[in-house]
Write a structure and sequence with these properties.
The chain is built from nine helices and 45 strands. It has 826 residues and is mainly beta. Among the domains are: 1-45 and 284-323, no CATH class; 49-152, Macroglobulin (MG2) domain (Immunoglobulin-like), CATH 2.60.40.1930; 476-525 and 530-564 and 625-747, TonB-dependent receptor, plug domain (Ferric Hydroxamate Uptake Protein, Chain A, domain 1). Strands 2-8-7-4-5 form a five-stranded mixed beta sheet. A hairpin with a 5-residue loop joins β14 (241-245) and β15. The protein starts with a helix and ends with a strand.
């Protein structure tokens, strides 16, 4: 942070020398010091994460699989160095407003490949794919990754899927947004507007603005995706109404925001000059302290880039902000008035041309059916130098998989634009396609109409920063609460035992306490697929006064903050072809699975019975064992009470919670050595062992001398190994459905399946079937080397068509890239 502060100071000095009359930097400005300190603290305590999910296509048939790769990115730097290791992906039914499916993907080095199998029970319609981390839940859901998908059924006969956002094309929604946020009487201001129909799609509009006297003040015409702007100089005592022509030709009135009597406006020119951002400030305040100043702060993703102090002595001023000082992406300009209140804001986009170029080079100009494709991928920076990049790539039949539009979202548009804005951004790829010569002008217009609220300045400048409620997950979590049957708090801590039983018969045994309010959490867990979890609380007699709830069992709430307009439609012949070919491919997949099943004939094996070794023990036969039963545990409070006097050479002194234990002969020059306690294979301290109920223990093994050497120096004092009933891989957890316990089956990480792509250079029985796959190839983890090179290969299908190839990826330093290509199959 010291480097950033130094750079800010340098910029301020430069501004002062450049505009001695208009600007003044006060080095001992208390507000400026507080503002910088609080903003730094806020961003350190509340850093940002971003998520992007690349899917193989936009339309699916029930029974198919959505192939995906998640990217978790540091939201402040865009580096691939985030801490979160769990990515949640929800499939939301927009009609029912319910989460139909959820998967948890394991993120390694910020990349989370996976898949989502679509059940046959899903209804046709428009669905939303939503991706986020647990930590991102501390911020508005508007910053979650979202993408609309079309899901069809094999019995569909229509030409398009039902859309949850469809409706009659009735009254347009037109918003009028003064630049900087407000209209001021007697001060000329630009007013941007945006028009969308009831489906959320932009609408070209025309109209005019009248004042209270019904005088025509200015005309208005949208220039791009329903957006445009006009200039207005509000008169004293006048209100303004815009009349916009609807689709049926009628004019509809829309009230413009009322003008404030006094204030300041901010107009930004980020288009005409390639070197500087020009910020024009105007005010109409009459009673002004000659020494009063305003503060203009420019920041990008939590990094303060430049600050200017602007005196109020003159009615107008211009600030020039060098673009070279800004990182690439969206910058926020905030103006604080002479009372240090934020009064005006404006977003601008800084283009540094720091995206990577991805070249897709096929080995042939065209291909035949079932022909091998060799594709060379080259990744370079803007200077043409190679750069190592991690990519995901999908190849689809363009005829069977129509694209929403060529300007759809990509990792580039999401990372640099959409992830920092609220609301729907239509055709975000438009602004990053060099073929659109007007893209920077239209992007500047977009930022005049789009919302941005990653934080509120009131939170930044408050005495306390809002606490983070949802923690960063480096593994899976189990969180919940223990309450009384009447849902009231118990008022003190409760001891909990967790048993996580995996499908491979391995188990984790955990213990811990709730806080005084009954809240608990077990973190950094690692299990895959459906797993059985048992939680038991110990409090009071027979635990009758405990009710355990688990957050992971709660039905997730759905708050749909933005639904991108989804105009994806099939023609009737396209829909029939897509359904037919997809059903054929699903049958091929089923046949392949059947071919992989091997039926073994009955055989008789004569051998000694194999005693399965307990995975919790790394030792062989212990020196002594105490089996816990109703007889020797009756009336005993702790494990040490039970083993006291039952094992030769094991000396227990004291009783109850004050008991201590020593194995004879375990000593060195410093005196006796305490034994190592191991609970179900995990080392524990004596305090933790004393909290284990004797009714939960199966047996205790004791290792002495050389037997304990397997534990190294930790076993110098001998080893006392406690093996619980629940920790055994053969124990039936369903027996535990009792008061004070919770038994549930929870999903773990989604197991990663390999994408099936037939290779026709080797003959297989299933190759006799026709091949009309929609997705021909999916590769989620392609890594180009230091020379920026990688090569992949796959085979074409039986269709004479065009194959659409799309590659997306990012470098370790956060430079994103996207590329499209087309392969002809003749």
């Amino acid at each position: 942070m010291h480097r950033i502060v130094h750079r800010i100071s340098t910029v301020l000095v430069g501004l002062t020398l450049m505009s001695l009359v208009a600007f003044r930097f006060v080095s001992d400005d208390d507000f400026l010091k507080r503002l910088l300190a609080r903003f730094q603290d806020y961003n350190q305590q509340r850093p940002v994460e971003k998520v992007y999910v690349h899917t193989d296509r936009d339309a699916y048939l029930t029974g198919e699989t959505i192939w995906m790769k998640g990217y978790i990115i540091n939201g402040n730097t865009h580096y691939i160095d985030t801490i979160s290791r769990v990515l949640y992906v929800d499939l939301i039914d927009l009609t029912a407003r319910r989460v139909r499916q959820r998967v948890q993907l394991r993120a390694t080095n910020s990349f989370a490949p996976g898949q989502l199998a679509l059940p046959d029970s899903l209804a046709s319609g428009t669905y939303m794919l939503q991706g986020y981390t647990n930590y991102m839940r501390n911020f508005p859901e508007a910053y979650f990754f979202t993408k609309t998908l079309t899901i069809l059924r094999a019995d569909d006969t229509g030409t398009t899927a039902k859309s949850a956002v469809s409706g009659k094309q009735n009254r347009l929604d037109v918003q009028f947004l003064p630049e900087g946020g407000q209209l001021i009487e007697g001060v000329e201001t630009r007013v941007a507007f945006k028009a969308v129909n009831s489906s959320g799609q932009s609408q070209t509009v025309q109209g005019f603005v009248l004042n209270t006297r019904n005088d025509t003040i200015v005309g208005l015409t949208s220039t791009h995706l329903g957006m445009g702007f006009f200039t207005l100089n509000p008169e004293v005592g006048q209100r303004y109404t815009a009349f916009v022509r609807q689709a049926d030709g009628t004019l509809t009135p829309y009230q413009l925001p009322a003008a404030n009597v006094q204030g300041v406006t901010m107009q930004v020119d980020n288009v005409s000059n390639n070197v500087n951002i020009r910020v024009y400030l105007r005010h109409n305040k009459t009673s002004v302290d000659p020494a009063a100043t305003m503060t203009l702060l420019a920041q990008t993703r939590g990094q303060v880039v430049q600050i200017a102090k602007v005196p109020l002595a003159k009615k107008g001023a211009m600030v020039q902000l060098p673009k070279a000082e800004f990182p690439e992406g969206i910058a926020q300009l905030t103006l604080f008035d002479e009372t240090n209140k934020p009064v005006s804001e404006r977003l601008v986009f800084i283009n540094k041309n720091q995206q990577i170029n991805i070249a897709l080079s096929p080995d042939k100009p065209s291909y035949k059916n079932r022909d091998k494709v060799e594709l060379t991928i080259t990744t370079t920076n803007a200077e043409g130098k190679p750069v190592a990049t991690n990519l995901s790539l999908a190849t689809v039949d363009a005829r069977l998989a129509p694209e929403v539009d060529s300007n759809s979202a990509s990792i580039v548009s999401h990372l640099l634009l959409s992830s920092d804005l609220t609301g729907v951004i239509e055709q975000p790829g438009y602004y990053f396609d060099p073929s659109h010569k007007d893209r920077w002008q239209q992007l500047d217009l977009l930022l005049m109409t789009q919302g941005w609220r990653r934080f509120a300045w009131s939170d930044v400048l408050a005495d306390s920063i809002p606490r983070v409620k949802y923690h960063v997950e480096r593994g899976l979590s189990l969180t919940g609460r223990v309450v009384r049957p009447n849902q009231k708090s118990i008022g003190s801590k409760v001891k909990l035992t967790f048993v996580v039983s995996r499908q491979d018969s391995t188990r984790d045994f955990l213990t811990g306490d709730t806080d005084d309010f009954g809240n608990f959490g077990a973190y950094d867990l690692d299990f895959t697929d459906t797993t059985t979890v048992l939680i038991q609380g110990v409090k009071g007699k027979a635990n009758r006064d405990l009710v355990i709830t688990l957050d992971q069992l709660l039905t997730p709430t759905v708050t749909i903050t933005r639904v991108p307009y989804n105009p994806l439609e099939f023609r009737r012949d396209e829909l029939a072809e897509f359904i037919k070919r997809t059903k054929e491919y699903q049958e091929i997949e089923r046949q392949i699975r059947r071919n992989g099943e091997v039926l073994l004939q009955s055989v008789t094996v004569k051998a000694k019975k194999y005693q399965e070794r307990d995975s919790r023990t790394i030792y062989g036969t212990p020196d002594a064992t105490v089996k816990f039963d109703q007889m020797n545990t009756a009336g005993r409070l702790t494990i040490l009470d039970v083993i006291q006097g039952r094992i030769a050479g094991v000396q227990v002194t004291g009783n109850g919670m004050n008991a201590r234990v020593q194995i004879r002969g375990a000593a060195n020059f410093s005196g006796p050595i305490e034994p190592l306690f191991v609970l179900d294979g995990m080392p524990m301290d004596l305090q933790g062992i004393m909290g284990i109920s004797v009714q939960d223990v199966d047996r205790v093994d004791v290792l002495k001398g050389a037997s304990a050497a397997i534990y190294g120096s930790r076993g110098g004092g001998g080893v006392i190994s406690i093996l619980t009933k629940r920790g055994s891989p053969n124990y039936d957890l369903t027996k535990e459905a009792a008061l004070g316990t919770l038994l549930a089956k929870l999903p773990g990480y989604a197991p990663i399946r390999e994408f099936y792509a037939p290779r026709y250079d080797t003959k297989k029985p299933e190759h006799v079937r026709p091949d009309y796959r929609t997705t021909l190839y999916w590769a989620p983890l392609i890594q180009t080397n230091a020379d920026g090179k990688a090569t992949i290969s796959f085979f074409t299908s039986d269709a004479k068509t065009e194959l659409r190839v799309r590659a997306e990826g990012i470098t370790m330093s956060g430079m994103p890239g996207m590329s499209r290509g087309v392969l002809r199959v003749e």
